[in-house]
Amino acid sequence: MATYCLTVARLQLALGQGVRRLHVSAAFNAKAKVSMSRFEPSNFVNYEKLNENVNIVRKRLNRPLTLSEKIVYGHLDDPVGQDIARGRTYLRLRPDRVAMQDATAQMAMLQFISSGLPQVAVPSTIHCDHLIEAQIGGAKDLARAKDINAEVYNFLASAGAKYGVGFWKPGSGIIHQIILENYAYPGVLLIGTDSHTPNGGGLGSICIGVGGADAVDVMAGIPWELKCPNVIGVKLTGKLSGWTSPKDVILKVAGILTVKGGTGAIVEYHGPGVDSISCTGQREGGLLTYRPLWVLGMATICNMGAEIGATTSVFPYNHRMKTYLEKTGRGGHPGNVSQMLKPHINGPFTPDLAHPMADIGATAVKNGWPLQVKVGLIGSCTNSSYEDMGRSASVAKQALDKGLKCKAAFTITPGSEQIRATIERDGYSKILGDVGGMVLANACGPCIGQWDRRDVKKGEKNTIVTSYNRNFTARNDANPATHAFVASPEIVTALAIAGTLDFNPEVDYLTAANGEKFKLKPPSADELPKLDFDPGQDTYQHPPAEGGSKLRVDVSPTSTRLQLLEPFDKWAGGDLEDLQILIKVSGQRIIWGLFRRGKCTTDHISAAGPWLKFRGHLDNISNNMLIGAVNIENDGVNKIKNQLTGEYGGVPDVARHYKANGLSWVVVGDDNYGEGSSREHAALEPRHLGGRCIIVKSFARIHETNLKKQGMLPLTFQNPADYDKIRPDDKISIKGLATFAPGKPLSTVVKHSDGTKDEFQLNHTFNETQIEWFQAGSALNRMKELQ
């Protein structure tokens, strides 16, 4: 029996040859003009310019380039003069396009409106996928969302029309699937206002998640800054078989690298396992299909690279990408660990807690995790391809043939209108419905907390299994007692049928309606539809050909959903004196039987779910600031002491009281602060409510940049042990701002309530441009100064 193995290593300078070199050279040397998408026939991919830039950089560095370096350096604003040093210098890049999902597009477009510019400078799109709540089924949920969110949808549609931004209407599908079907292609550099934008790496693209302010820079025609990424190589060998899927590759990698192991790096997948050819082999007298990595499987792996903190992930171009591009109407585009891969399931409460399926039952019993699976949920941007749905339907059909239905509730989220229409035409939807599933709207839904769940009470301990990408505490259903596990769609389907977490479909038996014992066979399905894709309904709104200068974008001053932005105040010119500690986030704690180091994700800083409705209204959304963070003083959530009154209150309430009394404040946190979503609201809210500085042991990449963009000071302890010196009632002064410079630490004086004090150094990663953002009060303020 063939096995599938992976090897993870830091790529050194010698890499960049073979298949990976062919990938970009074939694209960059293309002679024919190729449109950027079918919606933009007059915008062409400038491969000639990319190739020219790559040749300049290769000659300057005098070494081969890896695949990701070719694409990234090919988009340099100044390939001749740019200082290039992995992990150290900031690159100034010219991305090809911008994509924004509706929850983050609101603030991005509000910021773009504030810039005063008439049109976007690069092709850009808005995708309505985040504001649709899963409740009773796809069509009714969509109609309800259109009614509830009419004000926001109208704003986004009219702003898109005025400023030249394409608009994908609600019901179109999830942003990442739409990008894969229409906008990703080998060699493109795309930024998106969602942390799972790297999904596009499955088509040989460099797609990077950013905050809205970064998107505004690119839409304004300003070079975009990115710290020069390190490169991590993952070599794949062998072939996938049986119950093992591409999802298991990234689940295993997450277990190896952890949630911050990829920070500051691009993950490049390579090796014969990427381009292996399908064949059949014998096992136990039956046929066993060996499968190559298909495009949507590669996209799944890249998508969940966000869960290891990677800047992005990418696969080399191969014939499977060529086939997918043709099927979607784009045929013109040209430290080692080695383990046998088995089906995995990761969780609960963190996506890097990896378990082989053979072990999860015993592990769950040992830790007291509920074995009964209450709900199985498949789909989302991570796993909603045609083949994902087909393999899940393959499992479901076997159960139906034996007279069984799901013991757990079961939901299916199509990734796009194209996928929904195609799986309905080809019968997959009927099979999944017959086994007990409910097809939800083409949207993010429960994956981002848009789930009106009613089968358990808040605080009730229970288990759900999803094919999503994240499983942080309370993320999916706002219930902190829900144990969420992540697996492949076929494993989720099998567990929903069995109804228990300790069912391993590779070895365990089910009981048919007639009492017969049977095993599920490894699922199989077509990679792409034999009849091509059914596009379904047309849900795209083109920007008007004549431009939008005569159009208006209205925002009511009494709206609770939308609010025009006011500029933040500039730096006053001196040190920041006597900042009050607002909250010191707990460094470690026990969560439902798991010892976890202190997590303060963007879900903790700015919760999603029901709060998504306020993403266009900064003052209202700020009422969720840090309400999920754990206070080290009392292990409480959203319960901190107001040092002016001596009373305890919610974090946003205390922050507002400090601001009203002219008292600026600081947050102190632990490792990987701000991991997770790209949402810039987690940076905007602290700034809006009077915050000046965030001091932690380390930051997640996107959140650190978002804080800088809004005029905040993200600082790290030079000595991580200094975290323990800070008490919840301290006052902190930040010294050295008059001589603030790249590479030069700032100092701090910590005054304790007992009259003693501590002094130590704080590091930062600001470059000269970013220091100008801080001094101007925000990157947007600085943009206006330069106009």
Automatic annotation (TrEMBL):
PANTHER family: ACONITATE HYDRATASE B, ACONITATE HYDRATASE, MITOCHONDRIAL. Residues 69-334, 340-499 form the Aconitase/3-isopropylmalate dehydratase large subunit alpha/beta/alpha domain. It is found in: Mitochondrion. Residues 597-719 form the Aconitase A/isopropylmalate dehydratase small subunit swivel domain. Catalyzes the isomerization of citrate to isocitrate via cis-aconitate. This is Aconitate hydratase, mitochondrial. Its cofactor is [4Fe-4S] cluster. It catalyses: citrate = D-threo-isocitrate. It comes from the Eukaryota. GO terms for cellular component: cytosol; mitochondrion. It is an enzyme of class 4 (lyase). Belongs to the aconitase/IPM isomerase family. InterPro entries: Acnase/IPM_dHydase_lsu_aba_1/3, Acoase/IPM_deHydtase_lsu_aba, Aconitase/3IPM_dehydase_swvl, Aconitase/IPM_isomerase, Aconitase_4Fe-4S_BS, Aconitase_4Fe-4S_dom, Aconitase_dom2, AconitaseA/IPMdHydase_ssu_swvl. Keywords: 4Fe-4S, Iron, Iron-sulfur, Lyase, Metal-binding, Mitochondrion, Transit peptide. Pfam families: Aconitase, Aconitase_C. Its EC number is 4.2.1.3. NCBIfam families: PRK07229.1. Residues 531-552 are annotated as: Disordered. GO terms for biological process: tricarboxylic acid cycle. Its main location: mitochondrion. One of its GO terms (molecular function) is 4 iron, 4 sulfur cluster binding. Pathway: Carbohydrate metabolism; tricarboxylic acid cycle; isocitrate from oxaloacetate: step 2/2.
